[in-house]
Amino acid sequence: MDHRTEIADLGEFGLIEHLTQNIELQNASSVLGVGDDAAVIDHFGKQTVVTTDLLLEGVHFDLAYTPLRHLGYKSVIVNLSDVYAMNATPTQITVSIGISNRFSLEAIDEFYEGVYAACDKYGVDLVGGDTCSSQKGFIISVTAIGEVATDKFVKRSTAQIGDLLCCSGDLGAAYVGLLFLEREKQIYLESPQVQPDLEGEQYVIGRLLKPEAQKNTIDFFEASKLIPTAMMDVSDGLSSEILHICKQSGVGCTVYEEKLPIHEEMKRAAFKFEIDPTACALSGGEDYELLFTIAQNDYDKLVLNEQISVIGHITDPVEGRHIVTKGGNKHAITAQGWNAFK
User: Fold this and answer.
1) What are the backbone dihedrals phi and psi of residue 159, each rounded to the nearest 5 degrees, phi first?
2) Could you tell me the sign of the dihedral formed by the alpha carbons of 236, 237, 242, 247, in that order?
3) What does the alpha-carbon distance between residue 106 and residue 113 come to, in Å, rounded to a whole number?
4) How far, in Å, CA of 6 to CA of 172, rounded?
5) HSE of 331 in the Cβ direction (CA atoms, 13 Å)?
6) What predicted TM-score, i.e. pTM, was given to this entire model?
7) CA separation (Å) from 318 to 34, 47, 78, 314?
């Protein structure tokens, strides 16, 4: 980044024009995008799904080891994940940022490269947003909008006794990736001449810095004519999300440790920190997988999908919410997940 353009030289409207000059709308529902006081969206009789996430520098991300392009990409993904968790298809986003004068135009361009890369991959239109100066670091607010047929949207609160508890992908890798990056950051702060040692850890670091939303899982549901009975995304840790579904559905559950989807790369990396891979899977967070329940008679529809694991089943609430270890012991599930206020 040889040349530095000060954002103050463009002003707010000049910056917005610069960042949005090449937008091409992809969805028929995007009637009007950037340029007016508000976007206009027509979802043609379908249900509209709306979600918003706020990402704060120093709380949700650390620019010491987060490339701006990855940050832009991830800022979109965490919102699309919430839309997919409703069994919906994301169609539009808005992106608002607060930036200090330590960021050049070239730096913000890099951030938006990631935003547009995510939009292109998932077929989403950027239809609005805002920019403002910030005295407290980099602030990002993304709103995602999606659509779903009136008979297909899925809530957290509708799991039924006897349902199978399922999860897409694998769990815990993002947390282990964070441990590596934080370790190397501390080493650098103490000894700046030491080069980072992250060789062989691309998988777990990639799961943290550049996660993906579970479009493939939703497409699989559609192709298989399968509608989960309840669903949410795994952003704050599996145990926390399981308890959310159980509490809001008024049910209990039994989860089996041996069924938890744990990638071999995560397991190997976790052992380097002498931590239990199961604990990482249960409490790590930022996996952006989908946790869902299905009726038992739908099991045959997913049995051949290697990206989906059946990890337990829903029980009567009086039976509690437990995990059965590989050794056969039974423990109450407790939430160790992310808390933004701690």
Assistant:
1) -70, 145
2) negative
3) 10
4) 40
5) 13
6) 0.88
7) 52, 35, 34, 12
pLDDT in tens, 55-90: 999 999 999 999 999 999 999 999 999 999 999 999
Strands across the sheet containing 308-315: 230-234, 289-294, 164-168, 308-315, 252-256, 321-324, 330-332
Residue pLDDT, tens place only, 229-278: 999 999 999 999 999 999 999 999 999 999 999 999 999 999 999 999 99
**Which residue's entry shows tokens 């950027």?**
126
Tell me the chain's radius of gyration from C-alpha atoms: 21
Domains parsed from the chain with CATH numbers: 7-148 (3.30.1330.10), 164-332 (3.90.650.10)
Helix, strand, coil percent values for the chain (each to nearest 5): 35, 25, 40
What is the rounded distance in angstroms from the CA atom of residue 226 to the CA atom of residue 245?
19
Structure tokens at 181: 């990056």
Question: Position of tokens 């706020």?
Answer: 54
Backbone phi, psi, residue 179, to 5°: -60, -45
271: left (phi over 0), alpha (psi -120 to 50) or beta: alpha
